[in-house]
TrEMBL record:
This is ATP-binding cassette transporter. Keywords: ATP-binding, Membrane, Nucleotide-binding, Transmembrane, Transmembrane helix, Transport. Residues 45-345 form the ABC transmembrane type-1 domain. Its main location: membrane. The chain crosses the membrane at residues 40-61, 86-104, 170-194, 200-220, 286-310. It is a multi-pass membrane protein. PANTHER family: ATP-BINDING CASSETTE, SUB-FAMILY D MEMBER (PTHR11384), LYSOSOMAL COBALAMIN TRANSPORTER ABCD4 (PTHR11384:SF59). It holds the Pfam family SbmA_BacA. One of its GO terms (molecular function) is ATP binding.
């Protein structure tokens, strides 16, 4: 059995345990010496190439909007047909990239889940016996949930969020220059002064997405703790159900014991429901922000580009190119708003795995098991 990397539980302070960098090192640090790391590296390289290629094709698709809509404005049937042929080629290339990227994404999730689960199993087995119920860290009391459910969720959300963040960054870098050049210099007359704003649509996109990100952070900041509390209550409820089912298989079952067990189960389940209601409220409030800014994104780019279009600075095709570039930039900048709920659940699952690994490491050291064989 491969030795388990120490994670310094004795020196880890409570605040450090909640730090993002410490959590990442604790959860993924032990994978760096495994064969899974090599496979994930190759899959990651493939994903990077595919995302960059997809972004380039999306730039071509946005540039295609110009001549296509100009042909509609000019009623040029021949050019309209030629642009449809170009669209088929671009859409076909995007389709192939999306299918291959989906395969790479699922493969990366599978490999990461395997690495996390094997690492947690190795650490759990190295303890030699069950962790006592008076464990100081809550995460160690439910090894089944940490090893099975949380390893799956962390792997899935890590891959999804990493790909989404990288893709949004590439799109932002690809389209911000296009949007800057299309929007040009907007002249605003105010009290007899002519104020020129270079790349004004870029600034509008930044302000619009920044406002949404700030509001979502304020509204959804409690989701991480709320997800942690609900997971703890869910684990307690599941454990109580198993214990109640085991107890009913004995010969000592009485009406009083059944009543006491039922009351205990209802009490725990009420905690599950109460914690879930808090999450529902937070997610509902977050939906006001994400959905509101999402619907606003349909009209804001048109309003931003309208002055240049009605003044004759850009054609109808140029207007559609500007709208498309604005939407790409806005989508990239709104990545945190769109994924805030998933980020909160991911951070909560990461926290539980960290607690689990820290407690098992403490218990293993206290019992004299070194995890080597």
């Amino acid at each position: 059995m491969t030795p388990i990397d120490p994670i310094r539980p004795a020196t880890a302070r409570p605040r450090e345990n909640d730090a993002f960098g410490f959590q990442m090192r604790t959860v993924f640090g032990s994978l760096r010496h495994t064969r899974t790391r090599t496979r994930i590296t190759f899959v990651t390289i493939g994903l990077v190439i595919l995302i960059c290629l997809t972004s380039y094709i999306q730039v071509l698709l946005n540039n295609w909007n110009g001549p296509f809509y100009d042909s509609i404005e000019k009623r040029n049937l021949a050019e309209f047909g030629r642009q449809l042929e170009v669209f088929v080629l671009i859409a076909g290339a995007l389709l192939v990239c999306n299918v291959v990227q989906a395969w790479f994404t699922q493969t990366a999730t599978l490999l990461l889940r395997r690495g996390l689960a094997v690492d947690l199993l190795r650490l759990w087995n190295s303890c030699g016996r069950a962790v006592p119920q008076d464990a100081t860290l809550e995460g160690a009391r439910n090894p089944d949930q940490r090893i099975q459910e949380d390893s799956l969720n962390v792997a899935d959300w890590t891959v999804s969020l990493s790909i989404g963040l990288f893709q949004s960054t590439i799109l932002l870098l690809s389209f911000v220059g296009i949007l800057w050049s299309i929007s040009g210099s907007f002249a605003l007359s105010l009290f007899g002064l002519h104020i020129s704003i270079p790349g004004y649509m870029v600034w509008i996109a930044l302000i619009y997405a920044g406002a949404g990100t700030f509001l979502s952070s304020v509204v959804g900041r409690q989701l991480v703790d709320q997800n942690n509390r609900r997971a703890a209550f869910e684990a307690e409820f599941r454990k109580a159900l198993v214990e109640a089912n085991t107890a009913r298989g004995t010969d000592t079952v009485t009406r009083q014991s059944v009543f006491a067990t039922s009351w205990h189960l209802y009490r725990i389940f009420s905690n599950v429901l109460a914690s879930t209601r808090l999450i529902i409220v937070s997610q509902t409030n977050l939906t006001w922000i994400s959905a509101g800014f999402g619907w606003g994104g349909l009209v804001v780019p048109v309003l931003a580009a309208a002055p240049a279009y009605f003044s004759g600075q850009i054609s109808f095709g140029g207007l559609m190119m500007a709208v498309g570039a604005f939407n790409q930039v806005n989508t990239a900048l709104r990545w945190q708003i769109t994924n805030f709920s998933m980020i909160a659940q991911w951070r909560a699952a990461m926290h539980r795995i960290v607690q689990f690994k820290l407690q098992l490491e403490i218990f293993r050291q206290s019992t004299g098991h070194n995890g080597k064989s």
